[in-house]
Amino acid sequence: MDSRSKTVLITGARGFTGRHLRAHLQAAGWRVVGMDRGPAVNADDLSADLTHPEQLRAVLEVVQPDYIVHLAAITFVPHGDALEIYQTNLFGTQNLLDAILAVELRPHKVLVASSANVYGNPTVEVIDETLCPAPVTHYAMSKLAMEHLVRTYQDRLPILISRPFNYTGPGQDERFLIPKIVSHYRRRQPVIELGNLDVIRDFSDIRLVVEAYRRLLDSGVVGETVNICSGEGRSLGEMIQRMNQIAGYTIEVRINPAFVRANEIHRLIGDNHKLRRLIGELPEYPIDDLLMSLYSL
């Protein structure tokens, strides 16, 4: 079966990842239909809220997608409304899966995006999928609960769970760390306020993430949980140094205690051996090229 001629429904298609995934899949010949809350922006897209099961059933009956990529979620870790996080990330996902079954849809694959934040503060150097999760935020706990929920549907639906680590690219909201940093340099601001500069993250290019998703959709892989990551860790201080070189000046970094979280994850580096075993080698995107592309916007 040639999946490139098939229809994929992306929930959260107007979000950062959704926009890039849509463009990537369309360039590869897929028909993409987006689903978001609020009025549809693209002609083929439809509006539905994850907390309204009847809306989800209506969308699925109209679109009849061959593939579903479930990205819609509250993704900002410090989001203040815990109830909304669980209603969207956990019960919204349940509503979607129940809707698929209710309309008797038989998709070839349902790819559900979780998060590497489920790992919490691991004691190991590099994290593979066998590590027992230990989430420390409501966002991460909602994602882990969602994973457990999703697995109860694996006997009825061809589900694949992804755990993306940190990633960035053009169009990401400046509430997120790398866009915030780069925007300060673009505006030539002399000072930036940050939290802990010693935190280490696995930063990937959004192009790697969407290509990994396409290859996972194209593959025969189901019933798996897989990291999406570069396998390399970099401290926030290192990213500042790299941006100093790119922008040609040294920004003053002030530590704002309000930005230092009590439950801060200090080190989060992923092992991507399983991903590469499942879908093959992925292209490399040097971190300096990624930062330069953001700086040059």
In short:
The chain has 297 residues and is an alpha/beta fold. The chain has helices at residues 16-27, 53-63, 82-102, 138-151, 177-186, 206-218, 236-247, 273-279, 287-295, and strands spanning 7-11, 31-36, 46-47, 67-70, 109-113, 159-164, 167-168, 191-194, 200-201, 204-205, 225-228, 234-235, 252-255, 267-268. It has one domain (3-169, 204-231, 265-284): Rossmann fold (3-Layer(aba) Sandwich).
Task: Describe what you observe in this structure.
There is one protein chain. This protein is an alpha/beta fold and 297 residues long. The chain has one domain: Rossmann fold. It is built from nine helices and 14 strands. It has helices at 16-27, 53-63, 82-102, 138-151, 177-186, 206-218, 236-247, 273-279, 287-295; strands at residues 7-11, 31-36, 46-47, 67-70, 109-113, 159-164, 167-168, 191-194, 200-201, 204-205, 225-228, 234-235, 252-255, 267-268. A seven-stranded parallel sheet has the order 3-2-1-4-5-6-11, with helices on both faces. A three-stranded mixed sheet has the order 12-9-14. Helix 3 (82-102) links the parallel strand 4 (67-70) and strand 5 (109-113). Helix 1 crosses helix 6 (206-218). It starts with 6 loop residues before the first strand and ends with a helix.
